[in-house]
Amino acid sequence: MNFLAHLHLADNSKTSLAANLAGDFAKGNVADFPKHLQQGIWLHRQIDQLTDSHEITKELLTTFPSSLRRAAPIIIDLAFDHMLAKYWDEYHNMSLGLFSERAYDDIDACEQLPKQLQLIAPKIRSENWLMAYQNRTGLNQAIESVAKRISTPDIFNGATKAVAALDTEIEIAFRTFYPQLMAYSRMWAKQTPTQYLDIKSRHN
User: Fold this and answer.
1) What are 132-185's pLDDT values in tens digits?
2) Is the pTM above the cut of 0.90?
3) Could you tell me which residues come within 8 angstroms of residue 99 by beta carbon, excluding any fewer than 6 positions away?
4) Which residue in 191, 190, 83, 199 sits closest to 142, CA to CA?
């Protein structure tokens, strides 16, 4: 799952939007991060682990051309965000536009975010990354942007064409898997290890 899905799942599980997004940029021990970020980072990792190991996503990986197998897990994350944005009204009672503004506000208001997230947060808002996922152009731009940020961009060669060709397979996988992930995220939020809970903020 990528940015939009993690933010949506945070809202779905009634946990911090900014802290869940921080999980994309937080490396190392969860306990090494500020207390108000720990539950979100832990939850983010549970979501990623299930996504990577689930039979539905593993089977979807096999439908990609062999030349894209290394990049396919990242491509699927981005494509799932596109599917969530495309069918947003089926998964949330707030419009994507309003939810995006709320998410941007939460990120801006959150202190001690990982440095990399702090650096790109203004761009996330100014370029309205979450809304951009609604259309194919935005998805293609996201794929191309990721390719530019890594040391081996050639592993994404042909990615946008492959995603277009596999649109039906991706949609079926998303629609089957994502409701399960929503249920798991709510369960995990209730089962968060005590040491990762920000008890002080809960009492305020």
Assistant:
1) 999 999 999 999 988 988 888 899 999 999 999 999 999 999 999 999 999 999
2) yes
3) 7, 8, 11, 88, 92, 130
4) 83
Give the Cα separation of 113 and 184 in Å (integer).
25
What does 56-71 look like in DSSP terms, one character per residue? HHHHHHTTS-GGGTTT
Report d(CA 66, CA 32) in Å as an integer.
38
Q: What is the DSSP letter of 195?
A: G
**CA 201 to the chain's CA centroid:** 25
Q: What is the CA radius of gyration of the chain?
A: 17
Residue 163: closest CA among 74, 94, 98: 74
* Angstrom distance (rounded) from CA 45 to CA 128: 25
- Give the burial class of 77: count Cβ atoms within 10 A of its Cβ; 0-12 exposed, 13-18 middle, 19 or more buried: buried
Strand, coil or helix: what is 112? coil
Distance, in Å, from the CA atom of 18 to the CA atom of 193, rounded to the nearest integer, reads 19
